[in-house]
Structures
1.
Amino acid sequence: MSITPASNEDDDHSGIGMSRVRIDRELKSVISDVLGIDPEQAAEFTPETGLFGHLPELDSMAVAGLLTEMEDRLDIVIDDDDVDGEMLETYGGLLSFAEAKIIEG
Amino acid sequence: MIGNWQAPLADGSKSEELLVSFDEDRRTRLLVLPAWFDEANKLRRFTVEVMRRLDGAGLDSFLPDIPGCNESLAPLDDQTMESWREAADAAAKTFAATHVLSIRAGALIAPQELSGWRYAPQSGRKQLRSMIRARTIAAREQGLQETSEELSQQGRRDGLTLGGWDIGPSMFQQLERAETEPSDTQVEIAQSTVGGPGLWLRAEPDENPEQADALAAIVALAMSDRT
């Protein structure tokens, strides 16, 4: 039902790790699980969508759960030093962080 | 349905603890071991909803407070994994449990001799990691610097308060190593089998009738196969 142009980029045929499309999908899925919102609503997140400090449900305990779930589903390790305000402020920040971690990993 | 039971404490004394039960002296008597710490709150209603459905399916179930948890007056920082295992064993005997259903980290203390199920079992290490992370994030928000490594050292030495839970040094060290033992008799029920996202992930406690239906159906069907 998306009105954005269809992307040819899909991970199922790629041998070079997780594609951006798949990272985006997994990350939105984690956020919708943590916030208890419909996947459709999470699908509408843009890079500018505010997270920590914008969504009252997302307190430190919820953020910790979110990061731990990201580690599991994206197969990354998130260190103390990785966690800063910028990374958590917007959806785009979190997505860039996840992509960087996967490339690094 | 709301009662109490006498749980053993490490010093040999007893502690009166809350018990939620559906007891009609039926053939299957299921001991329910709840999730721990923050997850206990998030899954409390779900856990009782599953028991309600099992009652409807003709199964007895017993959800005891373990010392230091939920409504317990026993100090949490006095508890260890051994004292919790003893409490779970004592609960199994007290209620003459025939089976066990453990939820998340509850699997870590489930009596080995009982057959049953482990719903989405969680290791102590992961449970701890998430709680320590919550604390470092909260500290940073207040302009304090706390690292996971420093906090872990402090936890091993003196114990640590994580998310309002006072975890003693023995419990802390045991949690760091606690993994669910493989079991031939306690079957793992993964969240993917129940369907939908695990309620422990939610930022706020919630409920989900479909998931409660699914978990209760898995247990009830397995029991009807055996009888």
2.
Amino acid sequence: MNLIDKYVAEVGKHLPLLKGREDVEKELKSTLEDMLEDKAEQAGRPRDEAMEIELLKEYGSPQRIASSYNPHPYLIGPRMFPFFLMVLKIVLTVVIVIMLVLSSIKAVTAFPLFAADFMQVIMQGFGNALSTAIAAFGNVVIVFAILERILPEKEMGDFSNEKDWDPASLAKQPDPDMVKRGDLIVEVVFTALGLAFLNGLFNLPVFTKEFSQFIPWINAVFLGEIILDVYLLVTAKWNTPGRIAKVIIEAVGIAITVILIRTPNLTLFTNESLLNFIKISEEAGAAGLAAYYTTSITLIVILIIQGIELAKALYELLRINYRKK
Amino acid sequence: MENDELVQNMLLELRRGILSLAVLSQLGKEQYGYSLLKALSDQGMEIDQSTLYPLLRRLESQGLLQSDWRIVDEARPRRYYVISAQGKAVLTKLKKEWSAMTATITQMLS
């Protein structure tokens, strides 16, 4: 194996292509041989290793040559980048605010309230907010990197193609079945974050065994939502299967919430443990009582929101079929 | 001195756009990569190997070029490129745009 062959093999090793690797290698070898021949002719002597070394030096490092063939040098390309920035800003703000609020609650309800513990809770809160923000950043990058590769190039016109934009569309009623890609991407990112966040939350010791049996179901609803969103991103339009899937997801969500409300002992803030709290101190008892009601109230609020979502989904499903007739 | 680098970068951007046009224009008759490189260079359009080959691949994947491997004159196998019918149509349009653009810029710069 001479130097040129080794060089070509080295380039091939670094090629970022799946297809056509052999072609590129063959072409490179053929070119290098041609160039070497030229060199020998110019020098007026037969080719030798010194000449090969000089040629390869001129041609450049194998890594650089290989990377010039990269058809997709972006993790998140310029077409997606403005959206990425927008979503990133929202996500980071929301995540940091939530984490700080959670820490504050924890700091206020922490007992006993020794100064040292209090400081520790606050420092931990900042630490958690920072690490959650970094994790959220990573998640957003991953979601966008995947979308960058899933979404067909032409379809991205909605984001960046100014030519298609018609000022008259400002006055026109938007097509109710058109999917707003920006909204969907935001939704996918937040659902994915919510999924990660909730599963982190579920590990807190306040939740009981009764609650943990629901976790797979809750995750299934979230995953269903994400899958539906990605499907819509690809189809770009609502259709009957999409609407039906939406109704089913909302209905399952409501079913889970209803069962949750009817299940006692979801969290440790039950009557029994409340009695213990009250025995320890009155303030702690009040905090526990608040937490107990918070669980029920949260569930009821979630139920109301889900009810509205289901009604909207049903309405859209009926409308889509009504219009077809 | 520091302007040199700026000028180099801007030149690079200017050239990036017109290289496709230059390559398409020279592939009316078939050429392999290295001969195309020399043909371009002979006419004053220097282009780096590491730019030309990926560009040829891209133009081919866009359907503007066709290529096949051949052995001519008992030399080593070479990949010959030639402009496709679609490429010709695109080139005609680009040529028109190019003349209009150069006319405008020439007028602006005079």
